[in-house]
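Quick bug: IclR family transcriptional regulator output formatted oddly.
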Amino acid sequence: MPQCGVPARYAGAVKYAPAPTKDSGTSLGRAFAVLDLFTLAHPIVTVEYVTEALTYTRSTAYRYLRELAGAGLITQAAPGVYSLGPRIIELERLMALTDPLYRAGLDVLPQERQTNTALLLHNLYEDKVLCILKAGPDALECGGQRITIRRARGLPFPLFQGAASLAMLPWLSAHRIRQTYLQNPKSIARAGLGENWEQFRRSMVAVRRTGYATSHGTITPLISGVAVPILAPSGRLLGSLARTLPTEALDEAAEARHAEVLHGLARRIAEGCVNASAR
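Here's what came back:
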């Protein structure tokens, strides 16, 4: 039975679609909240689903869908059924050609020879860490297995999951670190970063003092990561750079060696990013 009046071929796509992560009281924010309903698992959104998930009236849902479609951000796949639109492809192309951090990473990372390891460049988007560039293989050899690297361009992760995320979090403002903890205490505890605020704060101080973060099997079993922050000369956080490799190839001495190399690459990326932004 189709749900919410969705054509049968689309019903499965929206049955378990999640609620958006964030809403806004502004008209623009409420329109953009519709975009949060689109996910990889649920690429189709209906008028009925928008009204239910966002508690909008039917006329409001239609208005926002019409405005988003007019901007090319979504497109009508069938009457009352929408998918992401062609403007997003256009914007992705523009980002690839103009984003200072991405362009700086593109100039630096492909020059590095990768043997059973990959380099991953990330930036911060709201409370998510977004991979914007990967240099190296899509899978690593580990214990006789080929294991796919789960980080790739466009994939977001929480601020406390994985080395690339943890390399950025300690360099945020004290207020933002505190808010991250208050909003995610259970997830942070599960990640082993502290059972309370004081333990979490000490974890962040330790990462900042060391200058790099590590994780083991957090994102992908048998795969570890070493990551460093990318900082502008002013100290402003630009992003993070991570190396992912088999856990079996990483001990404490190797962590420090990889971190030293990453810091050198991060400085070059920061310089390129700042120079590109100044043009």
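Actually, after a second look the formatting is fine. DSSP finds eleven helices and eleven strands in the chain. Closing.
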